[in-house]
Design brief:
mainly beta
């Protein structure tokens, strides 16, 4: 970039504030059985209780505050996770602060740990948690280098799959959003393409990056689609959800889309098929009735698919809500009663609710771990404020209980 530091001040917390802007509307979406019909056992689900997950939130605070290294994670957003075959959990982040965290007294009067104003900021990172739930190390950051000048990559959803269909060898496939430096209203980047990175196992070395959907030639950036905000595995298919940036140009909402890819072929553009309103084709069309921002999270429970998103309206920067459905094109049911995300200070927004099956309870009682990111609402001086109080740019976790309502 011609002026990397200035660009970072403008976009360094980009995913956070971008999503805070676009998550004002909601969607619940679901996945079809392999033939596209409504699945058996589908029933309404809603969140009946939730509680703060202090253990996970505290683990990221512990790791981020550890001052023994200066090249590891001290804060980030865009939180996604993946359970690896050996029991470890890979945590993926978008814009990430490295550097060193210092304890109080804080030079700007905050009663919190702080980070130097010149702390390195990279566009993405990956942190590895051991099978016992302790964060151990940050992979060399950025894990995914910039594809070109004035462009960067944000990692989103990921899965473990065969290197190729039927292969006994497993690899990690990570969906990447490519964005480019832009002018208002694209101060957090112009959507450009969806890519898929292949990582080796168990070493987590980046082997290749393949472009699966190029959007750079779509004239209107608000109509460009990025896939990977969430994915769900179902049989021999991976269903990958995405959205456009309609709300960045003050449209009432963005649109949601879904793609279907055979197991083992996420990195092959020719294998992707998109819901076109009547079936699976080569041109993605908006999901019927789906009005979304660019980030939401879908999970499958029994025959029902539940989506978590920020609530619309006045609660849109603090409230998390859910919907349920039986098929990718609806009907969509909800929103359910929302619950308030706990925020560390006034003037901060919650955004990007993500379900984490990798660390959720496996007892079959409907409990799920959900994270949300936090960031300042005001973009001016946001980086300085985040460095002055490091707790403002780290994920927070809650445990929610889903229950069938009939």
């Amino acid at each position: 970039m011609p002026d990397d530091r200035r660009a970072r001040q403008r976009t360094g917390t980009g995913l956070g504030l971008l999503l805070a802007l676009v998550l004002g509307t909601v969607l619940l979406t679901a996945l079809p059985d392999d033939d596209g019909r409504e699945g058996g056992g589908c029933a309404p689900h809603t969140v009946t209780s939730w509680s703060k997950d202090d253990r996970l939130t505290g683990e990221f605070a512990r790791y981020g505050d550890d001052a023994t290294r200066t090249d590891d994670w001290t804060g980030g957003d865009g939180t996604h996770s993946l359970r690896l075959p050996d029991g470890r959990v890979l945590w993926l982040f978008s814009d990430t602060y490295l550097g060193q965290v210092h304890g109080p007294p804080n030079p700007v009067g905050e009663s919190s740990a702080w980070r130097d104003t010149g702390a390195p900021l990279v566009r993405n990172s990956a942190v590895v948690m051991d099978a016992g739930g302790r964060l151990r190390n940050t992979l060399p950051a950025p894990l995914f280098p910039n594809p070109a000048q004035d462009q960067w990559r944000w990692p989103v959803a990921a899965r473990v799959e065969p290197r190729s269909p039927g292969s006994p060898e497993k690899v990690v496939r990570v969906l990447l959003w490519v964005r480019a430096t832009g002018q208002p209203p694209w101060i957090y980047g112009v959507p450009t393409a969806t890519e898929v990175a292949t990582l080796s196992l168990p070493g987590l070395r980046v082997e290749s990056v393949a472009k699966v959907l190029d959007q750079s030639l779509v004239p209107d950036p608000s109509r460009r689609i990025l896939f990977g905000t969430t994915l769900v595995e179902q049989g021999q298919w991976t269903y990958v959800f995405g959205g456009d940036d309609g709300r960045a140009v003050s449209r009432p909402s963005s649109s949601a889309y879904v793609a279907r890819v055979p197991k083992g072929r996420l990195g092959e553009a020719s294998a992707w098929r998109y819901w076109d309103g009547a079936g699976w084709g080569t041109v993605p069309k908006p999901l019927a009735g789906a009005q979304v921002g660019s980030a939401f999270s879908v999970v499958r429970t029994g025959g029902t698919y539940v989506l978590f998103t920020m609530a619309a309206g006045a609660a849109g920067l603090t409230g998390v809500t859910s919907y349920w459905a039986c098929s990718p094109t609806g009907p969509w049911h909800g929103p359910a009663k929302d619950f308030s995300a706990s925020l560390p200070a006034s003037g901060v927004a919650a955004y990007n609710p993500q379900v984490h099956p990798a660390v959720s309870d496996s007892a079959g009682d409907g409990r799920l771990v959900l994270s949300y990111d936090v960031n300042w609402l005001e973009t001016t001086g946001a980086s300085a404020s985040i460095n002055a109080n490091v707790s403002l740019y780290r994920p927070r976790f809650v445990t929610v209980r889903l229950t069938r309502t009939r």
